[in-house]
Amino acid sequence: MNPLAGALREAMVGSPHDLVVLDRETDTWQRRPWPEVHGIAESIAAYLLGRDQPGAVGLVGEPTVELIAAIQGSWLAGSGVSILPRPQRGAEPSEWAQATLARFRSIGVTTVFSYGATLQLLQDAGSPLAVCDIADAARTPTSTHLRYPDSADVAILQGTAGSTGTPRTAVLAPEAVLNNILSVSQRLSLGHNDVGCSWLPIYHDMGLAMVLTSTMSGGSLWLAPTGAFSAAPLRWAEWLSESRATLTAGPNFGYSVLGRFANRVSDVDLGALRIAINGGEPVDCAGVDRFAIGMSRFGFDAGAMAPSYGMAESTCAVTIPAPGEGLRIDIPDAADTARRYALLGRPVPGMEIRIVPSAHDETGESGEVEIRGSSMMTSYLGDTPADAGSNGQWFPTGDIGYLVDGALVICGRLKEIITIAGRNIFPTEIEQVVGEVDGVREGAVVAVGTESGAAQSRLLVAAEFIGTEQDTTRTAVIRRVVSVCGVTPADVVLMSPGSLPRTSSGKLRRLEVRRQLEAAR
């Protein structure tokens, strides 16, 4: 079997701990020992090898024991895996099913696993792909004579976020995925005694990395469906307490929600939590502080916070701070203390970063972040493979940042910089300020620059509104941006909750918002 499947087999079969999954229908935790989960994976591998349908495997659905086992089962069978989301709120079911299956087919998937109502939607779409019930595959008899392929070219076909453009598919080899898992485990000193707890979607690179890293450590892993978190975000604290989790991960808005409503949390114990990864979107230092302070009365150690940086093209993690460092902040301009950036740690073993000077920074202190190393993708699907190893080609991330004693700081995206009167402004500077205004939904603000007829850049702000007086909130937003950021928005558009376009992983699509605002003017 390939090295990734072999390493996971050793970890799962040798673990004395469990995979614990929350069943949303019964709201109970389903516990299965890791060796038993691997047995299910072997059944799924036997199912795939018996069908003799070469190609990648597609997975759709909230996490179940069988769906998690299917990831390893696919790798045992020598197949790559692509995981796509269930229907998003407001989507037309049949159109979603057709689009999902078309997406799978376009990237080389031949077999799709799902279950329940989602399976029925996919089967009703009439695709030429084999759409199968994961429960049937999990019951396939195994044989001692079954031979697993010795190697594989692809482990994961990972969709990129698409927050600033058209999503693409990163092709990740088994060796790259294994290198990233081991690098994260080494940086965080993970072992059998660690307990992971996650609600992140497994179709997102951070959610999948959380699953794989916890599995490789040999400790317990508690998984809750993303929908369960969305319906009641404060339950995250309850899950961390009940599981006695030592490791968790989430985007900034998740921590901000818990911090903002910490007074509604009770009877939890977060004293075991030693690593809380914050990644997937810009880190709001004020929001992290609010979480750390709010959760401290439940035993949370602020040193556990780990603001990190990663991307699908590098499997996931690029930089992570060492355990215990907590949130470290850099203020690049002493005269502008409102601009605070989180240090995102040093590169994980096997990865390198460099800063390439950018025309957007005349001081030369910041520039575009480029990365390379042992966790990098082979290529984007359809492109010529590139050498991105330790001595290979540098990959331009499109992010603007700088280094502080080797630790990475990210300022924003190159494509999203707003230039007003010769001054470069990153959207996050505006968005974090606006998110603190009463009536604005935190984590639901987009700042963009557009061009007027005189070719002068203008600042537009769109925010989801949860208050009662729109005019009062709009005025407060303008005053707040002027006083803190020193620029005046040309317009502030307040929208109903859920109106701002997002990627499937929940990231705001700033360029799409800009197109909508420009079209409306």
Automatic annotation (TrEMBL):
InterPro entries: AMP-bd_C_sf, AMP-binding_CS, AMP-dep_Lig_C, AMP-dep_synth/lig_dom, ANL_N_sf. Residues 14-381 form the AMP-dependent synthetase/ligase domain. It is an enzyme of class 6 (ligase). SUPFAM superfamilies: Acetyl-CoA synthetase-like (SSF56801). Its EC number is 6.2.1.20. Keywords: Ligase. PROSITE patterns: AMP_BINDING (PS00455). Residues 422-511 form the AMP-dependent ligase C-terminal domain. The keyword Ligase applies. Coiled coil: none annotated. NCBIfam families: PRK05851.1 (NF004510). PANTHER family: DISCO-INTERACTING PROTEIN 2, DISCO-INTERACTING PROTEIN 2 DIP2 -RELATED. Belongs to the ATP-dependent AMP-binding enzyme family. This is Long-chain-fatty acid--ACP ligase MbtM. It comes from Mycolicibacterium nivoides.
